[in-house]
Specification:
By secondary structure, the chain is an alpha+beta fold. It is 58% helix and 14% strand.
Length: 850
């Protein structure tokens, strides 16, 4: 069939699959019980009793995780696990179970919902450093404590991101506290994170006294009576002499800094040729100019570099430093130099942070929910693969091979980039893979067109790949541009979503354009194929007048948009979920563990909708709490009915439902939303710039009219999807916008854009082929030609979503519902909204379309 060389391509493909395949080992979390037994230094009757007790607890409560069952049983039986599991950081049962969880963990970090993590309760203490003028003090006082807290939250979020933790949960907690939750279970990682959190990262450049040698001599002569000059303080740093012996050096340093590190844009750890660790700093333009002025004005003076009140070095300024860079050297450990670099990049925290408490948190989702989600994903993949096999026969088998490889590459890339996997993330990955068949469908439909023209299979495959390449490239590049901007400017879950989306785009293009072509070439060489059977029962009529319905369609869309905006306006704040609004967290002591899912169900029936129920315990296991986060609007409704406080109302409800648990000694705290003002600003800026980039790209590749039509279609899809979701919520009392719903809306943007670009690309191609036809006729022809691809992609995506809806459980219900609405609306808009807008506004046929 073809004589194209395949050996090098086979070797390259095998290397790529092997590299990513090895990076996901072990993919699945190992069995906790097997891991537990493998780590035992000895095994006796007590251990056998412990394992039997833990398994009995799981049999009784299907939502209970093995690690939780083991620790609860060990505590109840009075077994000291450090006697059986040895390790330098294992001091108690909690440490032992954390160690087991770490050893059992798969290659991909699991989120708080799947594997639990750690919660830090952080107290914020205002702290003003140095001598300030009256004007500077006034400027500081004008900043409210809430502003300081919001700044601290965003800086902490950035610090989590330097550790590649995008799915942390950070929110205001009471009047002067912050709750920070991270999907970290290993003790050494918790300690590292604790140090990073506590670091204020207040970097100051201060001048050393001109008379430092004289002052040091006076101090050493009479340390007790010596008084530093006004405006100076004594600081010391440990240095080493030429023989490597430690030497303590003393400096008298100005209290007021010449400049701070507020304008640092990059900080990188480095090791010089002598093995000394240092940190290289880079300033932005303003910082670089300020540093140049400071060094220019103080040549031959020593400039002390002080971080969080600790002196690290005091180099002599030999000349003005004008390249916008600086260097911190010191006696750093590897972890210290990395933490300081990360903290400097994320910014200095404007208040002092005290860690008031540290808790281990259990997974927020029951094991049964997680198992349902994973099972649903596997079923969805099998359904899609069977569909492709039935519809495309041999070509479908090739697409399924690509799909299987795509799964390996996506998971391998997630492991490589330390992405955190959550349950909505599992649904998102499955959906991404379901949508990835779109590229295969585009290629196969192109091959079908060429075969229908009487061309040989070899030529049809060549032309099919060649003509589909541009469409696939345009469709995926526009989505990739959006993902990269969201990744660069977004924060928290927005950035995490963008990382996953970018990975999915890259792997899908590789498998569709490179891998499937390689398989075709191998089959052609081995079997000398002459033809390829393709089903045609989804190929619609090819001459339907879609633009003839444009007025009615645009009117219908206008009505839906108006209704959507009205409903969104009516629901207002009630449409926002607890991730945005926050609520009241109630903490209760308990005597008996009750499944979190059962508690949530009881609260749901009592009127507390969408409550977040979780268990947590202190690091030494002395303090165990049930925590319940409840929306304020629900609290107002319940407390008005019985005049109880939220704590009293919830305690009464739970003790009535679970009398053996004996809930008591409760406390309640106001908890802010996970979505702060800075988070919202970053997300809106990222989305705005993404839309501008899409306009520029599409204008360059097509025409400005096409770009505007694409943006209008995106706004149409997101507005109507949100509106229908809000209407459903008005009917059933649920459906609120949460972070998982935001992820679904962002996915809809990518899906809709992809669909629209495919149609536009065919219009651009047909303009050069269909001579003598009006632009309206060309658009109709293009829509008809791409309709089978549009329907096939929509069907495969909806198959995935329907399976997830039926089997995935309530945890991903809203995500899947929004996506189902979005797929329908996105398919409709690419045909009946975007294309008619181009037809109406287009002035010069074919002008500037490349």
């Amino acid at each position: 069939m073809n004589k194209k060389p395949v050996l090098l391509r086979i070797i390259f493909t095998l290397i790529v699959i092997a590299v990513f395949g090895l990076s996901i080992y072990p993919l699945y979390q190992r069995d906790i019980y097997d891991t537990f037994k493998s780590l035992l230094s000895k095994e006796d009757a007590k251990i056998n009793e412990l394992v039997a007790s833990a398994k009995a607890k799981q049999d009784k409560d299907k939502s209970l995780y093995p690690s939780k069952a083991l620790q609860t049983s060990a505590d109840e039986l009075g077994i000291n696990l450090p006697e059986y599991i040895k390790g330098k950081d294992i001091m108690n049962n909690s440490d032992a179970i954390s160690y087991v969880k770490k050893k059992a963990a798969g290659s991909i970090r699991l989120g708080l919902d799947l594997n639990g993590g750690v919660e830090f309760i952080l107290k914020l203490v205002e702290e003003k450093r140095g001598d300030f003028t009256a004007e500077e003090k006034k400027g500081q006082e004008e900043k409210s404590f809430d502003q300081y807290r919001d700044e601290a939250i965003e800086i902490l979020r950035k610090r989590m991101e330097t550790q590649k933790i995008y799915e942390s949960e950070i929110s205001p907690f009471g009047s002067s506290y912050i709750s920070l939750k991270a999907p970290i279970v290993a003790k050494d990682e918790k300690i590292k994170l604790e140090k990073l959190i506590k670091m204020s990262a207040s970097l100051e450049f201060r001048l050393v006294s001109k008379n430092n040698d004289k002052l040091v001599a006076e101090f050493k002569a009479d340390p007790k009576e010596f008084v530093p000059p006004v405006g100076f303080e004594k600081m010391t740093v440990t240095d080493h002499d030429r023989k490597g012996n430690p030497v303590i050096r003393t400096y008298f340093v100005k209290v007021k800094p010449e400049m701070t590190g507020d304008n640092i844009v990059d900080a990188r750890p480095q090791t010089d040729q002598f093995g000394q660790r240092k940190i290289l700093l880079r300033f932005n333009r303003a910082g670089g100019q300020e540093f140049a002025n400071v060094t220019r004005a103080n040549i031959d003076r020593q400039l002390a570099i002080v971080l969080d009140g600790k002196l690290y070095c005091a180099p002599v300024i030999r000349q003005a430093i004008t390249d916008g860079s600086a260097e911190i050297s010191g006696d750093f450990t590897r972890e210290e130099v990395e933490n300081i670099s990360d903290a400097l990049v994320s910014g200095s925290i404007p208040v002092k942070i005290d860690i008031e408490a540290v808790f281990d948190t259990d997974p927020t989702l029951g094991k049964e929910n997680v198992d349902n989600g994973i099972t649903a994903g596997i079923i969805a993949l099998v359904v899609v693969m069977l569909f492709m096999l039935v519809y495309y026969f041999r070509a479908g088998l090739i697409a399924d091979i690509a799909l299987a490889v795509n799964i390996i590459l996506v998971l391998g890339a997630m492991a490589t980039f330390s992405a955190t996997l959550t349950l909505p993330g599992i649904a998102g990955i499955i959906l991404t893979i379901g949508m990835s068949v779109d590229a295969n469908v585009l290629i196969f439909e192109r091959i079908r067109e060429e075969l229908s023209k009487g061309k040989s299979l070899s030529n049809s495959i060549d032309l099919g790949y060649g003509r589909a390449f541009t469409t696939i490239l345009d469709a995926n590049l526009t989505t990739l541009i959006t993902a990269l901007i969201l990744m660069y400017l977004g924060t928290g879950p927005i950035k995490g979503f963008a990382v996953t989306l970018s990975i999915g785009i890259a792997t899908s293009m590789f498998t569709a354009l490179f891998l499937t072509r390689l398989v075709f070439d191998i089959l052609g060489r081995v079997f000398d194929l002459k033809g390829m059977k393709l089903a045609s029962w989804l190929c619609p009529k090819k001459d339907f007048d879609f633009l003839g319905l444009s007025k009615a369609a645009l009117t219908f869309s206008g009505i839906l948009i108006v209704i959507s905006l009205i409903v969104i306006g009516i629901r207002g704040q009630n449409l926002l979920g607890i991730d945005f609004t926050g609520g009241t967290q109630i903490s209760l002591n308990y005597s008996k563990l009750v499944a979190a899912a059962d508690i949530a169900s009881v609260l749901e029936n009592a009127g507390f909708k969408d409550s977040k129920v979780n268990y947590k315990k202190s690091m030494d296991n002395s303090d165990r709490k049930l925590t319940i986060l409840i929306r304020d609007k629900d609290i107002n409704t319940i407390t008005q009915q019985n005049n109880n406080s939220p704590k009293e109302a919830v305690t009464e409800i739970l003790n009535k439902a679970f009398p053996d648990a004996k809930y008591k000694d409760g406390s309640e705290t106001t908890v802010g939303g996970l979505i702060g003002q800075q988070f919202t600003k970053s997300a809106l800026l990222a989305i705005f710039l993404a839309l501008v980039s899409i306009i520029i790209y599409i204008s360059f590749r097509f025409e400005f009219t096409f770009a505007i039509a694409s943006i209008v279609a995106l706004a149409h899809d997101v507005t109507i999807a949100t509106g229908i979701f809000a209407v459903i919520g008005m009917i059933n009392g649920g459906c609120e916008i949460t972070l998982s719903v935001i992820a679904a809306l962002l996915t809809i943007i990518g899906y809709s854009l992809n669909d629209t670009i495919v149609v536009f690309d065919r219009i651009r191609e047909d303009i050069g082929l269909e001579k003598g036809k009006s632009f309206k006729e060309i658009i109709n022809i293009s829509i008809n030609q791409t309709l089978s691809r549009t329907l096939l992609t929509s069907i495969t995506t909806m198959l995935v979503l329907i399976v997830l809806m039926i089997s995935g459980g309530v945890a991903i219900g809203d995500f899947v519902l929004v996506m189902l609405i979005g797929v329908v609306v996105g398919t409709y808009s690419s045909i009946f909204v975007a294309s008619p807008i181009v037809s109406v506004w287009h002035k010069r046929i074919g002008k500037n379309i490349h």
